[in-house]
Amino acid sequence: MSTQLIAIIILLGTFFGLMFLRTPIAISVGISCFTTCWYLNIPADIIIQNAVKGVNGYSLMAVPFFILMGEIMSTGGIAQRLVNLASSLVGWMRGGLAMVTVVASMLFGCVSGSSAACTATLGPIMVPMMKKKGYDEEFATTITMTSSVTGLLIPPSHNMVIYAMVAGGVSVGALFMAGVMPGLLMGSLLMAYSYIKARKKNYPIDGKFDIKKVAQAFVQAFWGLITIAIVVIGVCTGIVTATESAAVAVLWTLFVTFGIYKEVSIRELPKMVMRAVKTLAMILLLIATSSAFGWLLAYLKVPQLITRGIFHFSTNPYVVLIIVNVILILMGMLMDMSSIILIATPILLPIATSIGMSPVQFGAMLITNLGIGLLTPPVGGTLFIGSAISGIKFERLAKTMIPLYIMMGITILLVTYIPQISMVLPAFVK
Length: 430
Prior knowledge:
Number of helices: 22
Structural class: mainly alpha
């Protein structure tokens, strides 16, 4: 057995072994890197250098601002206003409360960029409300969890920023726009499923459409929604960079939260900052260790081996993309989202581009795929949050999720095989 193959087995075997022992992923990655370097007699300094290099990027400066912006807005009263706006828009339809949850998740996801934050914030509001109106508790919980994934796609999304950094030379503005249509597509499919489910179960209709209520709800939510405009318009027009727009958006959210909404005291700001710092520390540690891991994968020529293996199986672009999607879904079931972006992108992006897929479209496909991972056992973070909120067992929720997995799978296939879905809007980005 060659030295290269033994090193690959040590690297991946140590990583997956530690992960199955429930060791934190960043620590698993770090230990596997140092163990492999010890076997190969590579100086440990190289691992440290690549780890530092991984977090030493200007584009990453946008990530802490986006995280802090989401923390401030989720604490400062924006959630209830978004629910009110969504309710005025679609609450009057059959299965309206479920549709309200989907629309509210899409709006809140724009602000937070986090599926977990969206579920944790809207779940305690919407799940009891739907249950009170006669909805099945399992359906109420699963539609809340699934709709939160749209926030990963609809801008601004710090996961898109991380992907842009790893992919190299990909416009953040183009990636932001690439996520809009897939996010809306997934939301539309979930709303269609909610309507069919409501008809079948005879869920109630809640009131009638009232344009005055829509106008009032929009005015109340306007100051929060303008945050999205600051980021998206600023980045996509080229007026400011993603980092600059995120910094401006943080200042705006501070003004809106403490100067307009005034639902929380400014004394809560240190707690918001500390929660954001905790999240950021986890992400940066993952980025650092995953960068070293990626360097070792490249050193051992793992991307080339996987590429040859896939193309040996089939050279048909449709089959190759199916294999890529399956790999991403399997990784999503076992690993954290940020880790997958950092590890899988250098391996799978060259395969996608070799068959003519744009790095921008691949980014949209990647994030859509990884959204499923947040809802699948054994490591689905959002699935655990939904279970904690509703009190329903993890395994039972996963079984109830099957129809929604199908909706998300349809979204992935459409995004994968119809480039226009993710590429139309980026064409207008400067």
